[in-house]
Amino acid sequence: MPRLPTSSPRLTERKRSAIIDAAIDEFRVSGYETTSMDRIAARAEVSKRTVYNHFPSKEVLFAEILRHLWDAIAGGEAFAHHADRPLRDQLLELVAQKFRLLNDEAFVSLARVAIAAGIHSSELALDMVARMNEKEEGLTVWIRAAAKAGRLKIKDPVFASHQLESLIKGFAFWPQITLAQPPLDAATQKKVAESAVDMFLGYYAL
């Protein structure tokens, strides 16, 4: 007779969610270095073994949290290039998605934790940046598709994507992370988004 599973998929997913929620709280309150898998397990009310069954290391768990926050805020949206729509409208939608992430208090506080941890470990910093950049791939894909359709004169979509990201983060990420500036209000977001997109298209659009 086949053995019955020890826990249902639904229970397993609930435990995973509890671990992620507990880890978010621990990292925000205690910082990266002080947070331990033991403390996360205690806050999630699961065993330490259960935590390691889902996440083999603290580094993997932290990277998963960043992805989890991005997915929750972005709503799982993936913008495809549409040849029949104005480039400006599409780019403004992509930038609006980015603002939803950068204005989220939980993401900003965890980004501070990640940067602080990276100062003490270059290997960890590189790993975190690589994992976070995976979530910026959507803009690169869109730019590559627009260039292939003959609407943008771009030879290096990754470079162009980083340019646009930098225009946004220079106002809506780094001042908040390094100088504790407040999130941009709606009017300033609109100004930053429109000026960044117009500069980008002014240089690259055909």
From TrEMBL:
Keywords: DNA-binding. Residues 36-55 bind DNA. It comes from the Bacteria. The keyword DNA-binding applies. Pfam families: TetR_C_7 (PF14246), TetR_N (PF00440). The keyword DNA-binding applies. Residues 13-73 form the HTH tetR-type domain. This is TetR family transcriptional regulator. The lineage of its organism: Bacteria, Pseudomonadati, Pseudomonadota, Gammaproteobacteria, Lysobacterales.
